[in-house]
Write a structure and sequence with these properties.
It is a single chain. Strands 4-3-5 form a three-stranded antiparallel sheet. It has a two-stranded antiparallel ribbon with strand order 1-2. It has about 80 residues and is α+β, with helices and mostly antiparallel strands. It has one domain: 2-Layer Sandwich (Hypothetical Cytosolic Protein, Chain: A).
């Protein structure tokens, strides 16, 4: 039986299967972007594919705390596009 990879959502602090999450990545050039391949090199953080959760992450500046840098508005726009 194949093991299903679980990852923790940085907003809800709950474990989910990777297919229910979106990965945001910060690479070595300090660029933050939505990683659609889930394989980009760099520090990654996962967020649940839910509009309310993404808006909560933006409001509470969760990704700023995780990556310790300013997060461009475009990252949140890209996240919301992916769930629609």
């Amino acid at each position: 039986m194949k093991k299903i990879p679980l990852r923790k959502c940085v907003v809800t602090n709950k474990m989910f299967e990777k297919e229910h999450l979106l990965r945001v990545c910060k690479n070595s050039n300090n660029e933050v972007f939505v990683d659609l391949t889930n394989k980009a090199p760099g520090r990654g953080a996962y967020v649940l594919k839910d509009k309310d959760v993404i808006l909560k992450a933006q409001k509470n500046k969760i990704f700023e705390k995780v990556f310790q840098c300013e997060i461009p508005e475009q990252v949140y726009i890209d996240l919301l596009k992916e769930i629609d």
